[in-house]
Amino acid sequence: MAKVLCSLLLLGSAVMMTTACPKYCVCQNLSESLGTLCPSKGLLFVPSDIDRRTVELRLGGNYIIKITQQDFTNMTGLVDLTLSRNTISFIQPFSFVDLETLRSLHLDSNRLTELGPDVLRGLVNLQHLILNNNQLTRISKEAFDDLLLTLEDLDLSYNNLRGIPWEAIRKMLNLHQLSLDHNLISHIAEGTFIDLEKLARLDLTSNRLQKLPPDPIFARSQISSVLSTPFAPVLSLSFGGNPLHCNCEILWLRRLEREDDMETCASPPSLKGRYFWYVREEEFVCEPPLITQHTHKLLVLEGQTASLRYRLNPEELWQRLQDASRNLPAKLPEKLCARAPRAKAALNAKDGHTKCSNNLTGLLQLMAK
Ligand SMILES: *[C@@H]1O[C@H](CO)[C@@H](O)[C@H](O)[C@H]1NC(C)=O
Ligand SMILES: *[C@@H]1O[C@H](CO)[C@@H](O)[C@H](O)[C@H]1NC(C)=O
Ligand SMILES: *[C@@H]1O[C@H](CO)[C@@H](O)[C@H](O)[C@H]1NC(C)=O
């Protein structure tokens, strides 16, 4: 009898173990994977008695304020973690370091203001990182280091971001979706998207962008995108609600064949408020460069120097030189080459010329056209 009782007790404790479930939560052991569901239960912190074998953990809609290193320790089988709609304003560095199988992390609608370098450490299999509707103003350059190659979906929309670690984005070779809409971004680093061949959706709506950097990826956003293959899908690109500066620098964008997406020009004054796609190509102009000073002779022999000073922003110069190179030998005076390395690179890429011309007169005539 004592023996039976003893084994009954043992059995009882074994059952208790497998069904241990934090107060207020529902635990499901479906097809041998444990789900711990605690949505909207008024929780103030992550329960400490969650079964460490849990595969799915839902903690959305509570009042959790912070995440600590203890909260998810040993949860090495967790695949899906939802922390949406809490009041999280602080995540201790290395809090997710054991979550090596985590694929999806939902942190949307919280109060995060910053992502430090070690907050996302250890998430080496993360595919979906959802951070929209926080108050993020800063993201460390190293924040995404452990997930660069696995991330497919990054949502940073509805934050207060002025900048993004573009170098990191550039390395996210498996990215399918990038949502950066409704932030304060005024600059996108050139070359950011060059290697993102799988990118299918890029949302830049409602930021402070005056222009987009020219990038081959945007060719995939055209209506008749002939380039699209399963490996390089059509790109859904949105950039409405930005104060576009409609000059020669974004003529390339106007030349894309796209559906009218209600984008408008914010400047120059003459084009303010006009629909981007209705502005004629000829109206996307840049001021001619203003030559403020030059040496007496602009035509010199090889080895001799000639110099000039001009007032023009480098981007405009770049566009102007590109246009010029369509018509004439792609040769640039040394001085200009040195001052506009990007122009040089662009021209080299176009037709292989590496030599710079010593004939400034011709180039200036062209540029002033
Ligand atoms: C889930 O149930 C299976 C048997 O169906 C059992 O082997 C496993 O230990 C249970 N997992 C958890 C976390 O309780
Ligand atoms: C995590 O696992 C280690 C090693 O198995 C153990 O010593 C530790 O107590 C565990 N911590 C928690 C919070 O479960
Ligand atoms: C310099 O460029 C101008 C304008 O294109 C051209 O007329 C002139 O012949 C050039 N001079 C030399 C030496 O190449």
Automatic annotation (TrEMBL):
Judging by the UniProt lineage, the source's domain of life is Eukaryota
Keywords on record: Cell membrane, Leucine-rich repeat, Membrane, Repeat, Signal
Q: Which SUPFAM superfamilies match?
A: L domain-like
Locations listed in the record: Cell membrane; Membrane
Provide the primary localization.
membrane
Give the signal peptide range: 1-20
Q: List the GO cellular component terms.
A: cell surface; postsynaptic density membrane
- Answer whether the UniProt record assigns the keyword Cell membrane to this protein: yes
- Report the InterPro entries cross-referenced here: Cys-rich_flank_reg_C, Leu-rich_rpt, Leu-rich_rpt_typical-subtyp, LRFN, LRR_dom_sf
What membrane topology was assigned to this protein in its record? Single-pass type I membrane protein
What the entry lists under Gene3D superfamilies is as follows:
Ribonuclease Inhibitor
Q: Where is the LRRCT domain?
A: 242-287
Q: What is this protein called?
A: Leucine rich repeat and fibronectin type III domain containing 2
Q: Which organism is it from?
A: Sinocyclocheilus rhinocerous
